[in-house]
Structures are given as structure tokens and as C-alpha cells.
Predict the 3D structure of the following.
Amino acid sequence: MPGLSLFWDRVALTFYTLGLFFTLAVLLWRREHFFHWVRRVIGLGFLFQLVSVVETGYVAHHFPVTQFSETVNLLALLIAGIFLLAWRLYSPRGLPLIIEPLLFLLTFSAIYGPAGTARIGLQPAPTGLHNAWIYWHVALSLLGLAGLALAVAGALLYLWTERQLKHRPLRASLARALPPLETLDRMIYLALLFGFPLLTLGLIIGFYRAGIQWGVEGLQDPKILISVITWGLYLILLFVRWSSGWRGRRSALIIVICFLTAVAGFISNSFSHLHDFMR
Amino acid sequence: MTLRLYGLSHHTAPLEIRERLALDMEALPQAVERLRQQAGVAEALVLSTCNRFEIWMIAAGGEEPDPFAALEQARGHALPRELAAHCYERREREALRHIFRVCASLDSMLVGEPQILGQVKQAFQAARQAGGIGPHLELILERAFASAKRVRSDTTLVSASASLSHATIKIARGIFGQLEARAVLLLGTGKIGATAARDLRRHGAGRILLANRTAERALRLAQELEAEALPWEQWRAAAHQADIVVNSVPGSELQLERAQVEHWLRERRQRPVLLLDLAVPRAFENGINQLDQAFLYNLDDLQDAVAANQAERGRAAAKAEQLIEAEVEKFERRKQSRDMAPLLRALQAEAERLRQIELDRLRHKFGQLTPEQIALLDELTRGLMRKWLHRPLVELKIAASGIEGELLADFAQRLFGLSLPDAGEAATEISLSAASTASPGFEPDSTDSDLPAPPAPPAGARLVR
């Protein structure tokens, strides 16, 4: 057993599960004030997950990103943190509808998934991973992904709100529970601006390390190719926004595609010989 | 004389049908004139708003006007017969209730919206100008306006309403969040559009640009709204600056195409734009709503945006319905009571006539009488007559407000040998507004001394010997 960290993770999961119920209450009974309760339980979940990550790192004597479960756990923690920050800035009421299930799924799979901490426990870092560059590569990439996750949550909400506003007849009562389109647009843009440089930096570090360790051949890894596609889409997204003000539905759709490629990149750990420690 | 109403509204016809019938305010007097040429129509009013096209008529002369033909007459040309499926007809009390409800905004698309009363008043003026308003419609509308005013003051219907402006603000907030520093372009000086612009300003909208074909009206409204008036030819060039475009210029005078909005969006760097087409017929192409970042709403679309206030509005509307029902009831009773007036007057006149005949017949038998004696005799006979008449008059007045009124009136006519002119003629003869002020003596609780002095018989009244 990985000690107390698993316990803290389970406590965090309990709060995220509670959050799921509040989210359902919002959906079923249109109780908008439950959004605030969702935010509160996510806050508590975040705290316990933070304790879990710190303890894992402390016990294992390395940054806890050397296993799938640790990485997923850290990703959930970062997404929860960025969500809480976004809530403080914009209070986007509908955002928990998307973020909450995502947090639940990530934390659940970190604990009970095929390579979850509940099954394998804490293990020492694989050889070759005791390198600060790798930790920076993973941490920055995950932060970039967390930014992208917030952007995609905002984008989905945007598409939903836009559909409500364009739908005839108007569904005014539901639209009331959602944040205004321009607020969502600003939040999405900020999340993209936050995530892009971090992801870029994370990828550059990754390329640099892969180049040193495996040469040009290492760069032909499927995960690296998918990551480059993700990054390319990210870049296009920001470029068209800067150049011609692209936003709205089209932009939201590209963010969703971009996120899907990022998820594919995550899954591609199974085929990547460079990231086989993450299986 | 019967009150009849025929037409269609947002309840029965979609916007596509309603906009085919809609008439400008300027065209209403001609419509009333045409309608009056229809056989059997004594008085007429044409109400044409964004949400309804109705003809209100007083039918007379025993001839029943064909309502669809009357509708065609009002519109000035033949209409497809399938339109009749969207139309409704109301008569007498139902028609009366409908008119009261329309004026009180209970039948509006956005229940409680305040514009409808002004629109009915304008239609009333147009009908009056065309000679369509007689004593019946005048009286009905006078009461309907007063009832609408009561609904406004005694209920929260208008304040809780989901007025057009309320819906506008709600949608604008759904897109922009805060409205501070948002620019508004107002096209036309129509009342609905101006109200929407005024409300947007009240909720923080920064700059308002205003364009109208008639520069004079634009300048007047611009001054009131603290807006910038644009020459009509320039509004398309300036439109990309506006976050919200409110239009009240009908589609017959203005057309906005999708390509034009696409161009604006490029100039705006794809920032969203809200387009409110409040005109009938619609002026903005439907396809605009399919554009990314363009949100187009017409009058029908706004109906659903007001659902949020439904509960409070529902309560206020229920109270307003009760109030209107009571007003309709009161009106009906007053009407019946007023209809009894010619009979009461005829009865008093007949008694006075008989008294004079008897006095003249017997005067020479008394010999020489002093003026004091003549006055005494006059007082004696008059007093007897009044005592005799008191009970029948009071009973008739009381019965007038009940369901047995008509029956008793017939009975009294037969009993006293009176013949009255047609109710409509009587109503015409006795100015209705005058009748209402001259009627305190006819209140059921009046005493003997309240009874009116015996008048001369009504012009149309005939006494049966």
C-alpha cells in the first residue's frame, strides 16, 4: 500500500463524488446555487489531492510523475487548481458541469485504474528518470494540458450556451444558468494563453532530452508526433485569433479537436517506447 | 346592434402570416373607411400591430356582415381563403372581454408589455378620423382604457412583465454579460425600438447611434436618448461599430442581408453582434442567425426569452384577469342600466303628458283660480304622479342590473303602452358620455328626490294611444 497518500486521494475522490451529486442537482432541479457547493467541494478535493501528491513525492523522494497513476493524479490536481483560479476570476457558473466529471474520472482512474495507486502502490522511479529536465518536461506539459482542459471545458460550455441562444424557441431558464458568451470567450482565451507557452516549453525540453538520449530516431515516436500535432493546432488557434479575431463556434470546435489529440497523446503512452514508464 | 370582432393574432398565426396582413398606422383610416362600406357595419376600428390584426365592429341594421369579407375589405384586397383557419371571431360579451384583455396587455405575446395600450389608442384615433367611432365603440374603448389603467396601477403585471425590453436585456446579457460600454445602433424611431434602446441605456449601454429616414424625428429622439443621429444613408457604414442593432423599420422599407452582416463581423474582428428585428414585416434575413457570432431575434423569438419571470407574471396576470372580468361585468351591468334610461324617461314623459291633459281638461271647471291655487293644484297632481311612479321606476332601475332587466322592460312597455326606438338609435340620440354623467338619478339606491325631472319624450319615442 502506498501509505497515507492513497487515503488522501480517496478523501479527494469522495469530495469530487459529492461534487458530482451537486452537479446532478443543478442539472435535474435547476438549483443554480448548487454551483457554489460544487466549487467548495472541488476546493476541498484539491486540498486533499495536494496533500496526496506532496506526500507521494516526499515518500518516493522524487517528483511524482514517474507512473501513470501519479501523472493522472497530478493532472487532476492541476485542473482543479486552474478551475479554482478561473472561478475566482470569472465565476463561470456552468463550468463545473464539465470540470467536475473530468476531475472525478481522472482521480478515480488514478486510484482504481489498470495502473492505479490502489493496485501497484508506490514504486521507485525507473532508471533514467532521475533527471530534473524530465520532471520539468512532464510538469510543464501537464500544466499546459490543464490549461487546455480548462479551455475545452469553456469551449464545450460556449458551444452549449451558443446553441441555447440560437435555438428557437429560446430556452431561457437554462441559458440563465450559463455564463455569458463573452465571459466564456475571455476565459477560454486566457486559458489558452496560459497553457500554450507552458506546453511549448514542456515539449521543447522533451525534444531536447529525447534528442540527447535517443537521437533523431527518438523523435519518430508516435507520442511525440501526436504531441506535435496538438501543439500545431494550438498554435493555429492562437494565430487565427491574433490575425483575424477568430473566436466563437469555429474556434471552440478547434479547441475540442486539439484536446482530443492531447487525449490521444496521453493514450499513446501504450505505444511509445520513450514513455513506457507511464504504462 | 352587436359588438363583433374578427381577426388573427400571435395565438393563432405565425409571423409569416401576420406580416402579410400588417398595415402601417397611416393606412388605418383608409382601412376603416373601406370597412364601413361593408353592409351591416355601423362602427369600425382596425387594429394592426406586430402581433395582431383585428377588426372591431358594431353590426347594425339586422344584417350580419361576413367577417372574412370585412377583413378583406379592411385590408383592401382579396385574401386567400385558407387564412380563415388562422382567424377567430368573438361576439358581444366575449368580444368585449377580448377588447378589455387586449388593452390590459393580457392577450399580448409578452403579457404585461406596455406598448399595446398606446397602439390601441392610435388605432382608435385613426378610426375616429375615418368616422368609424360611434357611441358604442367610444363607450367600450373608454372603459377598456380605464380598466387597462387600473390593471397597471393595481397589479404588478407591467413591472413584472416580461416586456420586450426585458427580453432584450436578458438576451444581451446572455451574450455580453455586462452591457457597460456596449454600442447600440437604433434603426427607425418606432416605439418598440425606442423603448428597447432606452432600456439598454438604462442598463449601462454606452453609445447609441440612431438612424431614421426622417431626420427630424431622429434628431428629436436622439436628443431624448442622448444618442448620435446618423444620416440614413450612412447607417450601413457605421453598423460594424455597434454590438447591438435594434430595428423597427419594416421590411418593406429596409432589407438587411446575411452577406452584409458577414462583412461587419470581419470588420469587428468576429466580436459578437446582437440583432433585434422588431419590425413587421421583418427586415433582417433569417439566415443571419446561422452566422457564427451573429445572434438574430425577431418578435416571435423573444416570447421564450421571458419565461424566467413567468411565475410572478402568472400571479399578476391572474389578478389582472380577475380585475378585467369584474370590469367587464360592471360594464355590462351599466350598459343594461343605461339601456333602461329611454324607457324610464318615456314613462315619466307619458305620465307628465297625461297630467297636463287632465289639468287642462278640468281647469275651466274650477272657475277663477288664484296663482297660488294653480300652483297648489299643480303640486298636488305632480306629487301624486311622482308617488305613483316611484315604485315602478326604482324597480325597473334595480332590475336593469340583473338578468331579469330585459324581461321587465318589455313588460313595462306593454303595461304602460310605451314604444321605444331601437336601442342603437336611442344610444345615438343620448350621447353616451352625456348619459353617463346624467345618470345619477338612475342609480338603484337613489331616493325619490333623486329622480330626474320629467323630460320631454326622447326624439325617437312614440306613445301608443
In short: Chain A has ten helices and no strands.
